Amino acid sequence: MARRPDVWRVLTEPLIRQNPVTLQILGICSALAVTTTMATALTMAVSLTVVLTLAAGIISSIRRHIPDSIRLIVQIVIVASLVIVIDQVLQAYLAEISRALSVYVGLITTNCLVLGRTEAYARHHPPLPAMVDAFGNGLGYSLVLLIVGGLRELFGKGELFGVVVLPLADAGGWFTPLSLMLLAPSAFFILGLLVWAIRSWWPEQAEAPEHVPPGRAEAAE
Amino acid sequence: MTELWTLFLTAAFVDNMPLILFLGLCTFLALSKRPDAALGLGVAMTAVLGVTVPLNQLIYSHVLAPGAWGWAGMPELDLSYLALIAFIGVIAAAVQVLEMVLDRFFPAIHAAFGVFLPLLTVQCAILAGSLFMVERSYSLVESTVFGLGSGVGFAVAVVMLGAIRSRLAYANLPSGMRGLGIGFVLAGLMSLGFAAFSQMAAAS
Known about the structure:
The complex is a heterodimer.
Chain A: H1 3-12, H2 28-33, H3 38-61, H4 71-93, H5 95-101, H6 112-120, H7 127-157, E1 159-160, E2 163-164, H8 184-201, H9 214-220
Antiparallel strand pairs in A: 1-2
Chain B: H1 2-14, H2 25-30, H3 35-64, H4 83-105, H5 107-113, H6 116-119, H7 124-135, H8 140-168, H9 180-203
Helix pairs in contact in B: 1-8, 3-4, 3-7, 3-8, 4-5, 4-7, 8-9
């Protein structure tokens, strides 16, 4: 009976509270590069979630047979094989998006999120909870990707999924697109502010200050 | 020669790995709290990229590329889908060998690299260097220059961020902004600066 809420907790915990991107600093490499539009962000998010879930399932089901000394190589090879499959599927059915994603699909292999979850969780847990945990982390990652991608596409082009939401000024509407939103720096800013927002909501996530200012340190004594 | 120099500058500044292409951000943010650690990471990145990209170029063009087995009577054999696994294997092996060689012959440098070398096996930027090499079909010389250029670009960026963050350690930031949050905003500001390089490249 106690099992059900446990699985539920494992699934929902990484969504916001233990979000892999904003708290664990895992997998941000690809999180930013693919978020200029919602379509690429969604493709990337789905690919990563699929790879992560399957990799966690496979690795956790053979976890007793992998010798400790070569486990990293084994894990990387499993992940790389899954990524190759995803890459071929994308090239076959979504050629345009696959070209827009360029090398970033291949980079799922070295996405720290995948190795981090398999190393930290799947290696010590049976397949079902491992896959649930991986799926939850994939969803948490997707959530961040979609928020950043949505903001960038909305304010950079006035569109969502290629559908016009804010009519542009040069097409007779009122909205002047912020072209900065499509450039690299905006992704850093949005993610930084997102981290700030989440950590203000849950102050226990804030990192401890490295140095206490002298004035306050004296006051505390 | 000028083309190679242009390629080097492009790889280092215009297509800067962490700031413009968002590659290798995990280590970029995690290890940039102090400039000296950042310098070690930057040098290790340059060494590994400079070795693995040309190595992978050789393997790709002689083993994996479509038609590479023409001399053996199998011109239609196309192994390019194996590129990912091959590259990862080569990178892991190269990093291991590099570490052993350094440990044996240059223990001082090895000690300076510390823990960074083995970490680089799963660094997105290293793998991306090889993948870009395939996508843009560089020759052996070009891929060496490209690898070194990207490594230098990464080193410059990470040392600069490390310097800024070590100054900011004494600043009184809002609690939610400490660490990761301010790291992102700083990287964004630096990225704005580096975006100027691409404007210069476009103008010339």
